[in-house]
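Q: Here's a chain of 459 amino acids. Please give me its 3D structure as tokens.
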Amino acid sequence: MLPPDHFLHQPRQDFLIGVQEGHIDTSTLAAHDFDVDTRTGFMPPDPPLSRLPAQWELWETALDAAMQAKLQLSVKRFLTVEEKNSSESWREHVRKLPVLPMSELTHSELLLRRAHHVLTFIMHFYIYTLPLSSSVLIPEPISVPLVAISSHLQLPPVVTYSDNVLYNWDIIHPRAQTELGFEAPALDNLRSQDMFSGTIDEQEFYLASARIELRGVEALELMRATMDELFVGDKIAIRRITAYLYKLASVVHDLTAILLDVRKGCDPNTFYHSIRPWFRGADSDPAHRKWVFEGVEEQPTDLSGPSAGQSALIHALDVFLGLDNCNVVEGGVAPDQRTLLRRMQIYMPRHHRNFLRHLSTNPRPVRTFVMQTRSDINLLDAYNSAVQSVKEFRDAHIKIVAIYIIAPAARERTELEHPDPEAKEVGKQVLKGTGGTDLVRFLKGVRDKTAEAVMEPPL
């Protein structure tokens, strides 16, 4: 019997036989229009800007000052008077900044991304160094440009997955250059640019996701190749699709291993108490405060924090395998019946949202093709292997959540009542994801729906 990957690289003479007019253009699945690179996928092919030009240096120096002063969360236990004064001094400096002009920023996507990253980091530093008894009034020098920049990028004015992961990395050692340009960065050759806590733990948390994105590039190529074969649909195509799906399952298993490896560099207690609170969005604010953007006429409403659910790579796997019609909604009911996964697309770079829409327009979905060809047991097994690998990835995600959020939260609840009223208030909060979700219920619901997508062989 031929190995599963025998047909992965065999020449194909009848590549376009059976292609229907108007079919999805799979050649654009990695294209400039969608900001998807053949080497780095949803991450940019070159390290993101590490600093804005001189016109906006005041923003950069404000962020530098926050990181260099090692500003502390206001909910930190035993916060000293010196730490409180340091934070207030920095916030006062931010309030006195001028409202910088933004017209030149709008001509460059790279500048806009860096500006969004810097301003949202400043905003989260500002909000989460405030005492919980204080109202959240985001000063005009930050709120006005941030809302305008976010409008241009079609992103919410809040820290997102792209701010923490996609556009927050650099390489440690120079990359090798080939005839086709620079190679993709090695998974162990990455570092983060900016962090809230400045800890290795925070960096490893970001880099675990970055490594998943880079390893997932092969999954994107397998999707493209599979979709090409779906339009041929003959026996050779079926054998090739079978091989591609087996290989896709193998890649997703690698993603699972990378996800679990975060345990090697990120301590759960450090993450829960010193890193995660910086990420909270308005719907996870520990004091349920409303965020008010001063100087902004129409107040933003989509203000959830960053979440792994904002990764277009994982959404792409769902769409490709036909797993994206999950009916799990937040708390059982969503006002507009959108699932959380769909709501998370609001927080993705707009080009990546367009990529997912493009992928979803495929008139020959792989799941439908497999259902119509279930008599081919090898193809069915390959598809189920791919689905099962995604289910196992979600099992691993639940495991990480249990280690990094559920267990520390449980320990916090069982501790003796603490004299610090703000720490006590935080301990009372319902367990939510940084994206504002009912964390455990949602993750298990999505995992179970994925498991249900496994197909039974025909009778």
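Q: Can you summarize the key feature?
A: The radius of gyration is 23 Å.
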